[in-house]
Design goal:
By secondary structure, this protein is mainly α. Helix content is 79%, strand content 0%.
């Protein structure tokens, strides 16, 4: 039999290797397809269908973000108590119900109510999904599985953006009004799909009544290394602010690059984030290699800042090339950080308390991130070169701090986690 062509082999390697990982990948794509379809037209939906002003839409979204922040920790405790699979399925059902309600919303107050309900199920879903994946997969499969899911999520969001764009192309508010129902149908299908997945070990312990027994040892609130690791990792994730907000604004207001270049920038990011994660995850096997990835991600971030900073004084094709290169390098920061972050979650969370750890982690990761859109935009647009260099310095300091906090969290894990799961390596 002839060997497969290189292209065929490349595409085949994007398919997860096990039946469960393939089911999880399909679930990720279906979820992202629904969210992506609605999110593409959400600005039109909120302002022209619901009738809110742009300021009200922004305030409403901010309220839901704060609500998600506040729900993260208590719902993490619920995940540990009730089991990750059951709570993940419930969260998908709740998101679907919230989407079903959106076409009937006709005021700012009603939107806030639905948005807060959605935020609660969003926080529950994010926490329970991560807890389930880490629990149901063997140690050897966790990182590669999350890389595949990241790829399939990006593919789903891309398809959703295409469908959402097609809905906008009709230029008909009735079409936009019912895009939440399409998202709802996919979320409800997701809920059924999740309920049929195998139970993770923690789900089995819940069924056996073991979680009613008090877990020995300290919880995540006393794990200062973990808390600070999540805080500084959140700051590292501000590469997304550069990617989605600051560089596009810089292109429009500070360079002579054509605005259509924005489509090429986001297209390049999407392609890289679909095809590269499964390959890049092979570079990380433990905390030591994860910290190497942090260093590479930081270097990419700094290079992106310096390249983009230079485009305010270039013209023509050189500007286009440099802006594109700045966007590609910040995408590199995203990809290298992703693999490191998955390793932190797999190795530095107590397997008996993954929901609680995920909840605490979400709170502090968001605290390390939420300030960045306003701060980075102000620094880049008002301070010029000094602002870009300060942005690069902020992330560089966060990366340096991670070296200490990850080591501290690793020592905590060795002292307090079950021996079979406390397999952390010295990174000092």
């Amino acid at each position: 039999m002839p060997s497969p062509s290189p292209a065929r082999g490349f595409l085949a390697r994007l398919i997860p290797p096990t039946p469960l990982s393939r089911r999880l990948a399909v679930q990720s794509m279906v979820f992202a397809l629904g969210e992506g379809t609605f999110n593409t037209g959400s600005a039109v939906f909120l302002t022209q269908v619901v009738g809110m002003s742009a300021a009200q839409a922004g305030l409403g979204i901010s309220i839901t973000m704060v609500a998600s922040f506040l729900f993260s920790y208590p719902l993490g405790l619920v995940v540990d108590r009730m089991g990750p699979k059951r709570m993940w399925s419930l969260a998908a059902f709740g998101r679907g119900a919230a989407f079903l309600a959106l076409p009937f919303v006709d005021s700012f107050g009603q939107y806030v109510v639905v948005g807060v309900v959605f935020a609660a199920f969003e926080a529950l879903g994010d926490t329970s999904r991560e807890a389930y994946i880490l629990d149901v997969m063997s140690r050897e499969e966790r990182l590669s599985t999350q890389a595949y899911l990241y790829s399939w999520l990006n593919a789903g969001f891309t398809l959703g953006a295409i469908l959402g764009g097609a809905a906008l192309a009709f230029d008909n508010l009735d079409v936009i009004r019912f895009t939440p129902w399409f998202a709802a149908a996919l979320m409800l299908a997701n809920s059924v799909s999740i309920s049929r997945m195998p139970k993770a070990p923690h789900d089995l312990r819940v069924a056996a009544g073991e979680v009613r027994q008090r877990i020995a040892g300290p919880g995540p609130i006393r794990n200062v290394g973990w808390i600070l690791t999540e805080l500084f990792t959140g700051t590292m994730w501000t590469n997304q602010v550069l990617l989605n907000i600051v560089i596009p604004l810089w292109l429009v207001q500070r360079t002579d690059a054509p605005h259509v270049l924005l489509a090429w920038l986001f297209g390049t990011n999407t392609v890289l984030c679909i095809f590269l994660p499964p390959y890049m995850s092979k570079m990380v096997t433990d905390l030591r290699s994860a910290m190497r990835n942090i260093g590479i991600a930081t270097a990419f971030f700094v290079v992106s800042c310096v390249i983009t900073m230079a485009t305010h004084s270039t013209v023509g094709f050189l500007t286009i090339a440099l802006v594109w290169l700045g966007h590609v390098t910040v995408t590199g920061a995203e990809l290298f950080l992703s693999a490191a972050n998955w390793t932190f979650q797999a190795d530095l969370m107590d397997p008996r308390r993954r929901g609680e750890y995920q909840g605490v982690g979400d709170v502090f990761a968001k605290a390390g991130f939420l300030w960045a859109p306003a701060v980075y935009t102000y620094l880049a647009m008002n301070w010029g070169d000094a602002g870009w260099l300060l942005i690069a310095a902020i992330v560089s300091v966060a990366a340096l701090c991670l070296r200490w906090t990850v080591a501290a969290a690793g020592r905590f894990a060795e002292r307090n986690f079950p021996v079979a799961d406390s397999m952390v390596s010295d990174i000092s």
